[in-house]
Amino acid sequence: MVRASREDQIFIDPQKPVFYFSKRSFTTSNGTYTNLIYRIHFVETPFSLFPYYLAAGKNTGMLVTITADLENRPLLITTVNTCGCYVTIIPTNHLPAQAYPASWSDKEQHIYGEVLPARIEMKTAGDKLLVTIRPAVHRVMDVRIVDADAMADVPKSIADILPLSILKSLQLPEGGTTSMFYDTWPLKGHVKGAIKPWETLLLSLVSMDLFVGMDKEYGNTTESGNPFYTSLKPWNRQASDMNNFAKFLQFYGWNL
User: Fold this and answer.
1) What pLDDT, in 10s, does the model give residues 184-239?
2) Which long-range contacts (CB under 8 A, 24 or more apart) does 222-227 make?
3) Quick one: which of 41, 123, 135, 241 is 20 to 30 A from 223 by CA?
């Protein structure tokens, strides 16, 4: 759970797991779709040289977005770290053939060392989506459909589901509220305390972003002033902005 210790400082309470949820619609030339958005945060990606963790830093997070059609059939599963890194788009068997990128292959997806499925087969309304996260680095290492009964004996922690919007009104110990995100330039729209020193050192020049790798607000670029870009190339900053989901899909070749 995301908590605030003072106005300019937030931290993650690992004893209380929480998913922050939002439901948003978007429209393309082919129709209207709904995104079910789940956001979760972790205490940190630890500093380590062996193995080397490029994304070391505090208050890291992840988004899992399920895109459904008007019949509530899941079409796409998109996973991305809240820095905009390691984006993966996985179609389901409900996605029409004409919506795939022209260069699409049914081979597994290789995402910076992780191997993820090319497609997810969903058969019944009772199918459960299982996203497996690699410890320490908090990278998605597997996405699959499982039968609920098959998970009956697996140890579980029950997570609360809270509105995504609550991250902008965290309770302060002395009263009042504060946002999880900085609200003034130059850090506006970034998660408080989430600077990534290694990424700043090694990637800020090529990305032309001093705060590259820093976790961000997800929602509206106009309001946050901070595009949720998913491509390091500066000239793709707007086209790969996940805040504009229709344009984001188009950038990666999907014809939804």
Assistant:
1) 999 999 999 999 999 999 999 999 999 999 999 999 999 998 999 999 999 999 99
2) 224/181, 224/188, 224/189, 225/185, 225/188, 225/189, 226/188, 226/189, 226/190
3) 41
Beta strand pairing status for 18-28 and 160-163? parallel
CA 139 – CA 233 distance, rounded (Å): 21
Nearest to 118 by CA among 105, 133, 103, 134: 105
∠ CA 198-199-201, nearest 5°, is 65
Structure tokens at 200: 């700043």
Can you spell out the DSSP letters for 148-202? GGGGTTS---PPEEEEGGGGGSEEPTTSSEE-SB--STTSTTBBTT---HHHHHH
Cβ-proximal residues to 74 (8 Å cutoff; 6+ apart), any chain? 66, 67, 68, 92, 94, 122
3-class secondary-structure state, position 241: strand
Q: For residue 100, what are its two tokens?
A: 């795939």
- The residue ranges of every structural domain in the chain are 2-251
pTM above 0.90, yes or no: yes
